[in-house]
Amino acid sequence: MKEFALREQDQEMASGRFARYRFYLRQRPTMLVLLSVLAVLFFLGVTGLSHVYHAQRASLGDRWFSRGLADLNAKHYDAAVTEFRAALLYSRDEYSYQLNLAEALIGLDHTGEAFAYLLNLWDREPDNGLVNLELARIMARRGQVDQAVRYYNNAVYAAWPPGEESKRRDARLELIEILLQAKRQGDAQAELMALAANAGETPSLQQTIGEMFMRAGDYERALDAYRTILKVDDHNAAALAGAGNAAFQLGRFSVAQQYLQSAIRVNVNDTESAQRLEITEMVLRMDPFRSQISTPDRNKNVVDAFAAAGQRLNTCPLPSRDTFGTTGSAPSLKDEWIGLKPQITDAGLRRKPDLAQSAMDLVFRIERQTSSVCGPPTGPDLALLLIAKLHEGS
Amino acid sequence: MELQPNTETEVLAENGRPHPATAWILGHSPGALWRSAFREDRFFLILSVFIGVFSGLAVVCFRFAIDWSRLYFLGTGAVLTPMRMLLAPTLAGLVIAALVIHFFPTARGSGVNQTKAALYIFNGDIPFRTAIGKFITAALAIGSGHSLGPEDPSLQIGACLASLLGRRMRLSRDRMRLIAPVGAAAGLAAAFNAPISAVLFVIEEVIGRWSAGILGSVVLSAISGVVVMRWFLGSEPLFRVPAVELKNPTELIAYAALGVIGGLLSVVFASSITTLRPKCKALPKWTQYFQPAIAGLLIGVIAMLGAPQVMGAGYDYIDQAMHGQFTWEFLAILAGAKILATVLSFVSGTPGGMFAPTLFIGAMLGGAVGGAQHLFFPHLTGSVGTYALVGMGVLFAGFLRAPMTSVFMVLEVSGNYSIIVPVIVANTFAYVISRGLLPIPIFDLLTRQDGLDLPSMEEQREEDILRVEDAMQRPDGPILDGEKTLDQAMAELDHTKNEDLLVRLSPSGWNSVSKENLGKLAAEGKGAMTLASLLPVQQVPYLHPDHPLEMALRYVDRWPTVPVVSRADFRKLEGVVSQRGVLERYREFGET
Fold first, then answer.
1. Which member of B54, B168, B325 has the closest CB to residue A116?
2. Would you tell me which residues 12-41 of chain B have a C-beta closer than 8 angstroms to some C-beta of chain A?
3. Is B503 helix (H, G, I), strand (E, B) or coil?
4. What is the pLDDT of residues B391-414, one digit of tens each?
5. Residue pairs between chains A and B whose CB atoms are closer than 8 Å
6. Contact partners, residue B304, CB within 8 Å, separation at least 6
7. ipTM of the prediction
8. What are phi and psi of B548, to 5 degrees?
9. Cα-to-chain-centroid distance, residue B172
């Protein structure tokens, strides 16, 4: 009986304790503590899940990206685009995925879509060299030269990762190309000078620089570039030909002759240099005003030049005088030539040495005017035209 | 023995009350602050943060579940194989039907109406089983390619969690009623990564009225939910929005055209759902096992025919449309195909939301309209992406009929306020057209089809409110001046038959007196005294013309006439209201 009473008392105490616990559990502060604990546990659980989730997505993204890269390198642009798109499903904002997708899209000629991706990338990293370069290329394709130049400039001065420094140079080369195509020679020359200053002595690069200087009309610097190559490799056929051409354009025909002769020796198939050499030698041979020429030779050159000019007038009849703005009473070139012809003989020139100058003046005028009417001359007429340019203003 | 000063008695003032400074200290003691923090209204705010956190965590898990479901059903690649396109939604449809019929019948539909019903009918009570069912079935549906979105289920999951917490915390019935929208806002905010839009959507579509009492909790929970979601999934917005600018105001005409087309398309979309849904429900019960599967199969066919973009929520494709990656013709096809796919999914009873499909259709429509307009009017400067963005708002306004949310959603998603004018113009057209052609909003129609009648904000907008001015009449008798003597007042009353008179007091206030009482007072020889000194202290309350007429009901049974005064000058009487006049006005209103 006593035992039963004790047990009952125990039970009462236990239920009292339980009620007390329940009372405390129902208090709001306790509930909030429990809620906090629950939130922390839930948070930890979701963190674990999140790690699994993100790891899986990263792995899938990488897998598709690797496939895409392989296809991009193999120029399988269609497959690469699909794979990069799949990679982006798992990491929409992954920079490299978007960039490579853009490149693959450019490969597929989907420049509009590529441009959208690149612009997005540009917003995130406006000083990314590759993004600027690709944007510049798209703009160049679209013919928006100013925009292209802006992006090219960004690419040139952008941050390039170590090992990709050469792309900065490539960007500048492409920029120069665009400027040359847009006939912005001054801008192109400025960029070329900046490029040349840091180009070193790499023959291939100097060759490109030389060619670009030639196209930009800066023959002096082009010659320098070719000479830089020849310092390293004096048998470089392209450099010899380029140097010959640059000297030829500068009117330094004897220098040009040396380079061109060497160029042909190194590369006998270089027909362009051979033709240029032929002209060069013709210029050197036909120039009556060159130094250290004997009087008979000079007279002979004048007579030959005068005859060639007459021939040129026959093959290229000039329009009426007024076309050239000559005064009404002035005789035509043909008339002048006919009038002077009897005197331009070896004997005549010996009698009147001053006639050589008058005869050559007429020859130069004939060659200039016929070239502007009938197009660039060839052979002796070209040589005479070059001689005319050489002695312009003298 | 030296006596120690008793600080407790020292701080008491002579009358036994604590000194004000002491009272302040006692009132701000840790104990008092502790007790005050756990008053129900404050506790509710704290609880809102927890609701936001739990909802955010649940939504994150829901996102994981959808993505995993997609991986296993549709594969890991960007291009789906025809087999997967057909089989995934079909098989998932069979499983979903079985789960919904046998285990989670309340998981059907989008979840918005159910949450609203919890608020207005079930005192905030939503069975937790609904959340589990919604989580599983919606994840399966969306992941397998059914054309539905995760936002509305997230909203319902949040509401379910909030309801569970409210029950466990033993909140009062009033608070319990409000708790579902708090969770709904958190769930939606976390799913859409847009807290402002979520708060507005919950107010417009779930609560259906502006309620200052709940706004704080809704905002707190929405922000908590978004913070948690961003912790796990990053803070990137759902879409990469292109640069937006409006260079020429005439371009607004183009956006208005988008609004008109969007409004018409919203009506087509909503009508298709509301027409087909009851028909599908009316089919024999056994067909319900196959309806989601058939819908899935048809969606697979649409995908195979060249529009795989319609499968799932489609956010990636919205992103692509915004960046001009589709032609306008294809965008138009996608808008139509998505409407078809969403109607199929939804009317078949597959659990999932309409938020994402609405945005998808809107973006595609906007892109298509923008692209087409560019073709005919090349001078337009807005990009296709801008039109797609505005298009999302247009469908939101036209289809979901949440005009405010539609504007703020676009602003929040784009982060660009320069788009506000085009959005408002286009959304207004869409909203007005949709409302004109389909007077009852889609969610209300769906609720009514389910046999419920819940209040809506649109109803409220259209509701005529009676005001005091509607029942106001000119006073019958003269207005007495409280400063005049009783004799002077009696002289004024000679020609009036009106028994109850208003007295204007100085400097302000009104009182009322009957002619009979005035006579009695005069008989007592108080003729030389002013009226103000003779009248009882209790004054007659006054009203203003713009007060709701309900307010007049509080007073007209106690005072025969209640003065209606100007808000600018309380002594200027605009009119009076009486019980009879008020009741008559209500009767007339009821008859119209």
1. B325
2. 34, 38
3. strand
4. 999 999 999 888 888 899 888 877
5. 75
6. B82, B85, B86
7. 0.75
8. -60, 150
9. 23
Name the strands in the sheet holding B510-514, side by side, starting at the edge strand that comes first in the sequence: B480-481, B500-504, B510-514
| A-interface mutation test, from B60, B76, B161, B315, most A Cβ less than 10 A away | B76
- Whether the per-residue pLDDT at A19 is higher than 70: the answer is no
Neighbours of B170 (CB within 10 A): 12
User: Does residue A46 sit at the B interface (CB-CB below 8 Å)?
Assistant: yes
If contacts are CB pairs under 8 Å, which of residues 526-585 in chain B contact chain A? Answer: none
Q: Any CB–CB contact under 8 A between A365 and chain B?
A: no
Q: Where in chain B is the domain with CATH 1.10.3080.10?
A: 8-233, 251-461
**Closest alpha carbon to A197 in A156, A225, A234:** A225
A237 falls in which pLDDT band (50, 70, 90)?
confident
Among A17-21, A212-216, B501-505, B579-583, which is the least confidently predicted range? A17-21
Residue B8 pLDDT exceeds 60: no
Show the tokens assigned to A110. Answer: 């989907």
Give the Å distances, CA to CA, from B474 to A166, A307, B482: 93, 124, 20
φ and ψ at residue A128, rounded to 5 degrees: -80, 120
**In this structure, which topology does domain B468-591 adopt according to CATH?**
CBS-domain (3.10.580)
Nearest CA in chain A to B70: A89
In this predicted model, what pLDDT tens digit does every residue of A167-183 receive, in sequence order?
A: 888 888 899 998 988 88
pLDDT of residue B26: 64
pLDDT tens string B447-471 = 888 888 777 666 666 667 788 988 8
* Residues carrying CATH 3.10.580.10, chain B: 468-591
Read off the pLDDT of residues B69-113 as tens digits, 9 standing for 90 and up: 999 998 888 888 889 999 999 999 999 999 999 998 888 877 888
pLDDT at B461: 61
Tokens found for residue A256? 């040009």
The Cα–Cα gap between B492 and B204 comes to: 56
- Closest CB to B54: pick one of A42, A49, A83: A42
- Residue B153 pLDDT class (50, 70, 90 cuts): very high
Q: B78–A53: do the CB atoms touch at under 8 Å?
A: no
Q: Are B277 and B271 in contact (CB under 8 A)?
A: no
Say which CATH superfamily domain B8-233 falls into: Clc chloride channel (1.10.3080.10)
Query: Options 1.10.3080.10, 3.90.980.10, 2.60.120.590, 1.10.10.10; which CATH number does B251-461 get?
Result: 1.10.3080.10
pLDDT at B16 over 60: no
Evaluate if residue B537 carries a pLDDT over 80. Answer: no
* B280 and chain A in contact, CB less than 8 A: no
Q: Which residues lie closer than 8 Å to A341 by C-beta, 6 or more apart?
A: A306, A310
H or E element: which one contains A350?
A: helix A346-351
Are A175 and A187 in contact by the 8 Å Cβ rule? The answer is no
